[in-house]
## 1
Amino acid sequence: MKVIDIKQVPKEQVAGSLSSLFTRPVTMQHVIGKELSKNFIITQVNFGRSVRNKFHSHSKEQILIVTEGKGIVATDEGEITVGPGDVIYIPAGEKHWHGAAEGATFSHLYVWPPDTETTQLED
């Protein structure tokens, strides 16, 4: 067993090609990576005020667990406001975006298999 205190996990600025997926900079905390699990990865994403990612899809299903703030999860069909404790299931291939609500900050954990690929669908 291993207990991880997320407050002790360093926040890293998103850089490189992944940074273009977001409307402004965000930080990530890599909670559980390939070194601990071969079945899933857990990362916390921290969005500043009104920051979101752009429409994208994933090659595998994704689970979001809201940890702080007020956020929005959206598809072409509409937007849903979410808050701490909400769990969102996103099937593989579904076009979506998520991020902080207007004027709010937002954090969520994402859970997915380690070989998941992300395709950005919005410039």
## 2
Amino acid sequence: MGKGGEKRYFDREFKCEAIRLMNEGKRTVRDIAKDLGVHPNLLHQWRRNYRTDAEQAFPGKGHLAPAEEEIRRLKRENEALREEKDILKKALAIFSKHPG
């Protein structure tokens, strides 16, 4: 949280630049964090995320990595299919009880 309790958001470019500064090794992480106005632990977290998967790191505010987005989409689709199946089961039960 930033000063006054407001949540701050940093774009991918900002985070990548912070990581670049850390990787140069010319300054301490503490000094870089102070200049950028963030906590040193946050810089370490960004660097870990970047090292894990540089291409998918920092997808943006409100966005998920493509694999996570696909999982979310498939879960929604799965739920819709379950609901359709339940409706068809109920319809079959109704029509089975009352022949034509």
## 3
Amino acid sequence: MEIIKVDQVRKEPWTGPLFTGGAVTRQTLVGPDVGRSLNAAMVNFGQGARSKFHMHTSDQILIVTAGKGIVATEQEERSVSPGDIIFFRAGEKHWHGATKASNFSHIYIVASDSKTAQVED
């Protein structure tokens, strides 16, 4: 058994072409160690920051922990807040991030062998 205290996990800047609109940090909670079947991390978005449309090769679960956010697919866009849990199926194009007026944090969970493909420039 392992107990992880999120407030004790270092925030690392998460930069790259997948994000737009502001600062994003990541706190790796469960990494891709040998024998683990899941990866989990806390992602923290500054006001207006979001991911671009992307998809994963595995299902993805988001658990909203702070702030107000937006999750979107090609069909819909929804507002989310702490306590909401979002499920994206493998291969479903989606994005998620903060509203313009609020920071936003969520925990994501994916399979350890999941690959991410950005589908928006």
